[in-house]
DNA sequence: TCTTTTTCCCATCGGATAGGTAGGAATTAA
DNA sequence: TTAATTCCTACCTATCCGATGGGAAAAAGA
């Protein structure tokens, strides 16, 4: 299960993505994220109500994780460092929740040796690697852009 | 990530599966699990070293979950209620760790409404349902039998 | 009947983690 | 100078994870 951190992160990111895509559209500037339109925490909380302080720590994590940039002071806030298409959901989850794999011994980014089994012949290892791959097939393919897409062109936000 | 409970469960189950399959093979009795060959906790711990007391609670969970049967007293122990082919890994995980889905609002067996989003238009909901399906494609298909299979006919256990 | 071996049940416990809060320093724009 | 913002450190509380202890109940064998 995703932690609250990851869930809130996706909420906040969906706001940033929608703004980012809208700006690109109106400015007809498909390349490189601009640094001029940061969104403040208080702004994000207005759109998706949640604890301001908690969101603060989450956005800091996303910044340290290389997904967001920030601008301090009046008019400051956070912005996407890359095009939404270029940040897979897997990256967000790894930053906030750690490993995606169901076992440390099959994790790609957080590997830890399994001390009481031989990985080459361990049935569980092999099966959980399958599960990991099934997850990654979705989470590395889907990106922040997909967060903002609504199937039937519905208007409400989420 | 799987809990230790689930990991230990799979270890213990792999012992039961191997015994079960071996017995079926030598007795040439393909139908219905026999009730005459229970394996005790102390026996399982000898094969896969772990806390006896902890394994006790795990096996009790598996029994309540409908996977194992038990026999008390001298010569007693636990045994599979069904053919190993007929217990998907998903069932084991649900008993010990709860939901497989990454969010309660996309869980099939542990569904909980998502109070601050409209599921019909929530981008995250839709994406996490994809993740859930990718997981289930493996975990409902693979069974206890797959736990006991070693790819290259290696001899060591795991 | 008595003893041994087992499952079964209930209570507890220490440490870690999740989720969230508090207070203030540093930076920036107006 | 002031107001708005990010940034940083520390803390807090409740829950859960992993594990243990002490028996009661059942069954088999001597």
Give a structural overview.
The structure is a homodimer of 158-residue chains. Chain A is mainly alpha-helical. Chain A has one domain (4-147): Winged helix-like DNA-binding domain superfamily/Winged helix DNA-binding domain (Arc Repressor Mutant, subunit A, Orthogonal Bundle), CATH 1.10.10.10. In chain A, 47% of the residues lie in helices and 5% in strands. The first copy, chain A, has 6 helices and 2 strands, in the order αααββααα. The first copy, chain A, has helices at 4-27, 41-47, 52-64, 89-97, 123-139, 144-147; strands at residues 68-71, 77-80. Chain A has a two-stranded antiparallel ribbon. In chain A, helix 1 (4-27) crosses helix 3 (52-64) and helix 1 (4-27) packs antiparallel against helix 4. In chain A, 34% of the residues are buried. At the A-B interface, helix 1 and helix 5 of A face helix 1 and helix 5 of B. The structure holds a DNA duplex (30 and 30 nucleotides).
Question: What's the short story on this structure?
Answer:
2 copies of one chain form a homodimer. Chain A has 6 helices and 2 strands; from the N terminus they run H-H-H-E-E-H-H-H. With 158 residues, the first copy, chain A, is mainly α.
Structural key phrases:
homodimer, 158 residues, mainly alpha, Arc Repressor Mutant, subunit A, two-stranded antiparallel sheet, 6 helices, 2 strands, 47% helix, DNA-binding
């Amino acid at each position: 299960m995703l932690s609250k951190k990851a869930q809130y992160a996706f909420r906040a990111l969906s706001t940033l993505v929608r703004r980012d895509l809208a700006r690109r559209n109106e400015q007809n500037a498909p390349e490189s994220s601009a640094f001029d339109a940061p969104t403040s925490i208080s702004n994000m909380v207005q759109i998706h109500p949640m604890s301001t302080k908690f969101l603060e720590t989450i956005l800091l994590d996303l910044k340290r994780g290389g997904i967001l940039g920030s601008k301090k002071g009046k008019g400051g806030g956070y912005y996407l460092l890359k095009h939404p298409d270029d940040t897979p959901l897997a990256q967000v989850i790894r930053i906030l929740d750690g490993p995606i794999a169901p076992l440390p011994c099959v994790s790609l980014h957080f590997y830890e040796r399994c001390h009481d089994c031989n990985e080459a012949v361990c049935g569980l290892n092999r099966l959980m690697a399958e599960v990991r791959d099934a997850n990654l097939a979705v989470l590395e393919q889907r990106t922040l852009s997909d967060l903002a897409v609504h199937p039937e062109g519905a208007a409400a936000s989420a």
